Amino acid sequence: MRLSAPNTALTLDRSETVMNLKELSQNLGLSQTTVSRALNGYPEVSARTRQRVEQAAKKFNYRPSTRAKGLATGQALAIGHVIPLSTKHEMVNPIFGDFIAGAGETYAREGYEMMLSIVDDKDQEQIYRNLKSRQSVDGVVVHAPRMNDTRIPLLQALGLPFAVHGRASGCDLAYTWLDVNNRSAFARATDYLCDLGHRRIALINGLEVMDFAHRRRMGYAASLAARDIALDPALMRSDEMTEGFGYQSAREMLGSSAPPTAIVCSSMISTLGVRRAIEEMGLKMGRDVSVVTHDDALSYLQNGGDKPIFTATRSSVRHAGRRLAKMLLHAIAHPGQPPQSELMEAELMIGRSTGPAPGKG
């Protein structure tokens, strides 16, 4: 499935007429190849001809298509996003939507399109090989990296430029990536709850084969260890971050004989399920049970107004999309340069979902 990046279409007055390459070439009495090369700065075109073509293009409102420009430059002018079926739920996740929107802004500005491919997990390697051999894209973004992710060495071996949204623990290769400091964010969230007097703090995490969830658990565990609080397996859950998972996990733990007084949750969506469980059990969030979430400053799932509903470790995934797209385009334009990396810090925002541990206020 090929989708144009957002905002690539040009809005024209009804009175304006857009001239295509063939019409512009006929008007000038030049070949389409000469006109295309003149507009793309090829040195074999004389300065006089280039100036004549550029003036005519401006006069007749010529707008080169991405495909035509790609043919002239030998580039696809497209970036691939390959989504395995096992993680296709990401496409309806507001985090994925915000990331794609941010990346799309950068692609549009630089004249690139976006190609989204949903594939069977077992076909991923062949898809990447096909993208390379057919020159369908100039680079790809790797989503949801796992521990020891095999896509990274594969893409390096293929010589297909790529950038990773996240990192892959266990992979010692140098590659372009952008990640939020998940370990630091969850250590800070857990520290905050400990400072409020909580000692039974639960973790509702994503799938811990995913690198981000692994790092979040490490931060949570490190914070508890620093306070001499032993990890309790009964207070830890790991699965796909759905509302139902958050709800069921919170119901089970809060209904136990030794319930948590606080919960650290890996996504806003799961946290909505946690809040539903708290309310159904006749408890009050922020008084009986404190909750800290990771909310990614989402465009379509806001965490309240001036006063956040949830205390949250916050980062902008839309900004991450813009930045990673820019890093990938840089790698495509400068293939000999070392890969770039960027680690974003999350901000702890205090909301109404946290308070002193019961009996400590």
Describe this structure in words.
40% of the residues lie in helices and 16% in strands. It contains twelve helices and 13 strands. A seven-stranded mixed beta sheet has the order 1-3-2-4-5-6-12, with helices on both faces. The longest helix has 17 residues, at 317-333. It is elongated and about 85 Å long.
Strand order of the largest sheet: 1-3-2-4-5-6-12
* Poorly predicted residue ranges: 1-16
- The tally of strands reads 13
Return the average pLDDT rounded to an integer: 87
Q: Report the β-strand fraction as a percent range.
A: 15-25%
> Main beta sheet: strand number and arrangement?
7 strands, mixed
Span between termini: 55 Å
Give a summary of the structure in a few sentences.
The chain has 361 residues and is of the alpha/beta class.
Can you tag this structure with a few keywords?
361 residues; alpha/beta; 7-stranded mixed beta sheet; 6-stranded mixed beta sheet; 12 helices; 40% helix; elongated
